[in-house]
Amino acid sequence: MSTPPLAGAGMPPGAFSGTQAQAAREVNTASLCRIGQETVQDIVFRTMEIFQLLRNMQLPNGVTYHTATYQDRLAKLQEHLRQLSILFRKLRLVYDKCNENCAGLDPVPIEQLIPYVEEDGSKHDDRGAASQLRFASEERREIMEVNKVTKLK
Predict the structure, then answer these.
(1) Nearest-angstrom CA–CA distance, 153 and 146
(2) Considering Cα of 68, then 73, then 76, then 79, what sign does the dihedral take?
(3) Concatenated DSSP letters of 107-118
(4) Which of 1, 48, 56, 93 has the most other CB atoms within 10 Å of its CB?
(5) Structure letter (DSSP) for residue 11
(6) 81 lies in which domain range?
(7) Which intervals of the chain form a coiled coil (predicted)?
(8) Residue 146: inside a domain, yes or no?
């Protein structure tokens, strides 16, 4: 890892820090999604730990237990809840940044996501689709007629 050049070494002061700040702001959306996924996993893990702590706590049913034990468990529980709130805030920031990055994208129709292979290798056009639809309709009609004949026999 190389060190950044000093401000007096041929670059104007603040030029490098500006590009670093811009690079930090322009984070890949896929990386943000991965960070969000890891954050959700951390939230689930912390929540499981909170439930584990609560399950192990005894109810004060006339039983006296040490104040130090109570204080220790309460401190652990509060720490887990604090960490959980921090993780939720982090997840919200990631969510907002992902929405911001994807705001300018046009939604892609589902039909375009399905790969289409043509027999002749030419580009797909409306005339080809219409002829294929007509061919498929005729083929369906013929199959229905054959089915009727076989049912009658």
Answers:
(1) 11
(2) negative
(3) PPPHHHHS----
(4) 93
(5) S
(6) 27-103
(7) none
(8) no
Greatest mean pLDDT range, 80-84, 111-115, 121-125 = 80-84
Tell how many helices (H) and how many strands (E) occur in the chain: 5, 0
Residue closest to 46 by CA, chosen among 90, 81, 93: 81
Q: Any idea which residue has 């939604």 for tokens?
A: 107
Contact 17, 6 (CB under 8 A): no
- Write out the two tokens for 52: 């584990």
Mean of per-residue pLDDT scores for the chain: 77
Domains in the chain, number: 1
Q: How far apart are CA 23 and CA 4, in angstroms?
A: 14
Answer whether residue 65 is part of any domain. yes
Residue 27, pLDDT > 80, answer: no
Q: How far is CA 121 from the centre of its chain?
A: 36
Token pair for residue 27?
């984070």
